[in-house]
Amino acid sequence: MHSKARGRFRRVYARSNAAGLVLLVLITWSVYAAAGTGFLSSFNLFTLSQMAAGTAVIGMAQLAVVVTGRMNLAVGAIGVGVVMLTGWLLGPAGVPPLVAIPMGLAAGGAAGALMAWLELKTGLNSFIVTLAMASVYSGLTLILTKGESVSVLPSSVTSLGSRGLGPYVSVLIVPALVVAGALWFLYQRTSLGWKILAVGGNETAARLGGVRVGRMVMVSFAISGVLCGIAAVMEMSRVAAALPSLGTSWLMASFIVPVLGGTPLKGGSVSVGGALLAAIFVESITSGLVSLSVPTYWQSFAVALVLLVAVVADEARRRRQRGAVRVEVAELVEAKESHVSARA
Amino acid sequence: MSARGLELRRGAGPWAPLLAVVVVGSAIVASVNRQFLTPSNAYVVIASASLLCIIGLAQVMVLSVGEFSLAIGGIGALSGVAMGYLLVERGAPLLAAVFVAMLVGTIAGLANGLLITRSGVDGFVITLASGGAFTGLALGITETQPYNGLPEAFTVFGTGRIGFVPYLAFATIGLSAAAAAFFRWHRVGRLLLAVGGSREAAALSGLSPARAVVAAHTLSGLLAGAAGVMAAAQLHEANASVGAEWVITSFTVAIIGGTSLSGGVVSIGGLIIAGLILALIKDALVMLSVNPLWVALTQGALILAAVFFGRSNRRRRPQRRVARRSAISEQAVS
């Protein structure tokens, strides 16, 4: 009886969340397509796929930390650090991409792990630690690069950004999907992922159950740092340059994607597929506004407003859902009880 | 009176070790650059600190109930732009424009508070998105061109001084004193601290956490609006991007000043000292001709150091404050 209810709950919850997002994306696309300003053109959709891929990875970078109940406010800072480091390695330092990129990603992972270590050693809130370290990392990057960008990059890297799987879809969705697949596998099929989720679900219980909480947090933050790096390299390839302005808009997207995607900020559960859909939704809004020739200075307002509404509406739906499921479970329990008492 | 949730911090906050460093550092800077100890430099520092303190005060308001507001920059930008619009495009009288700006801030804060308590979405996410919306609105209104040509009287307020004390400092001192009195003696102020101290206990005592959250965000919006007005006065222009770095600044000043991240403990006196310290440090870096890019890095390092060393005064709270807060908003709504 119990597991049936739980199974039903999970299916209903997940299905409706993903379904809701798919619906949102379809509605958005229909509205923009109806405007007849080229939303469905190959150029626009190609760009959309590029942006959505990047945003998806940014969102997953935050997701990796959020599942433990913590937050990473340094996503943009780590991103810019990795992009400038990798850009410098690829450009002026002439390091081959197959060496430079892993080095950059490793730096990102180390940056993330350092924040986790600080949090564990000092006992400070992840909010404060990552907020402060964001300043440290971005400040350091700015100082070391003197604010200069790297615009001469090997073509093997920059061509990735412009290549497509057909005219409508950028090749960049491949790393995004690979990351998503890896995370899905991690959280759904490995004991490491399960332990990470346990830390988010109930840290004390997890610790009492033998989970090395500190280690799980460090792993999560390291994953987050690496993913920031991946997103940074993706963007670098997309714009064909390593710009010190990268990452400044990452923070909002990094939280909205998991939240809308069904990964709660308090941790313990995860929805990687939802995050992908949410990324598509978020970028679709902007892309549509661009196709409508909405001036850039109104775009940020429109996007923020839509996201605000979406987050509130999503929570409202979730609450209604919970109410409905509670009724379901209660009915099941009632049925069982009456069954028992009838027998007795 | 020192019931746990009603504490105004007694004794030195995290700024104490920092103050020692600053005093020593000032001596060093003064020996390197003669300009450091002049009245005109003191004016610069105090003017800068005045703005920092108001920004920090806006954050203190929400920190008192255990919330975070990431919308302070956006509200400040929007208020400044609203004022600029009225003054430049509509030729409105100065006081009316300032009043409207503060009203805009208050309403924005109120909207945040209501959204948070009614929707049950975490304050962090709501203010992150609403802050973006407010900034976006300000950008849209100004079409990214700041409003210049603000009236004479306003710029006098922004840059005028008595000796080396800017007029702006009086506004800051007034608002800070009001805030301190508010937390110490006013019923609502004590409500905020009680709720911040322990939401469960406050709710069980018959207090309303939802009302406290709304009040906190509304007041924060009011102060953010004031900060927007002050920033416009200082810069002689109403700029939409003025609030971009206010988020981290607001936390830095508030926390170094001794206000607790977990709520229930505020320190207004510490806030003022922290504002002065931060302004001094920034000024010292300029005086030493240090690369301005170092400022961001030092701010980050400072906040870490300050919070770490001030830890003995803080209560330990479990990491997942988000869960607690959502649960309580749920309760408050139902």
Please describe what this structure looks like.
The complex is a heterodimer of chains A (344) and B (334). By secondary structure, chain A is mostly helical. Chain A is 78% helix and 0% strand. Chain A is globular. Chain B is mainly α. Chain B is built from 14 helices and 4 strands. Chain B has helices at residues 15-32, 39-63, 72-89, 94-119, 123-142, 152-159, 167-185, 187-197, 199-204, 209-235, 246-256, 268-287, 294-309, 321-333, and strands at residues 7-8, 161-162, 165-166, 265-266. In chain B, a hairpin with a 2-residue loop joins strand 2 and strand 3 (165-166). At the A-B interface, helix 5, helix 11 and helix 13 of A face helix 5, helix 11, helix 13 and helix 14 of B.
How is the topology of this model organized?
The complex is a heterodimer of chains A (344) and B (334).
Chain A: H1 2-34, H2 42-66, H3 75-90, H4 97-122, H5 126-145, H6 155-162, H7 173-189, H8 191-201, H9 203-208, H10 213-239, H11 250-261, H12 272-291, H13 296-343
Helix pairs in contact in A: 1-12, 1-13, 2-7, 2-10, 2-11, 2-12, 3-4, 3-5, 3-10, 4-5, 4-10, 6-10, 7-8, 8-10, 11-12, 12-13
Chain B: E1 7-8, H1 15-32, H2 39-63, H3 72-89, H4 94-119, H5 123-142, H6 152-159, E2 161-162, E3 165-166, H7 167-185, H8 187-197, H9 199-204, H10 209-235, H11 246-256, E4 265-266, H12 268-287, H13 294-309, H14 321-333
Quick overview:
The complex is a heterodimer of chains A (344) and B (334). Chain A is mainly alpha-helical.
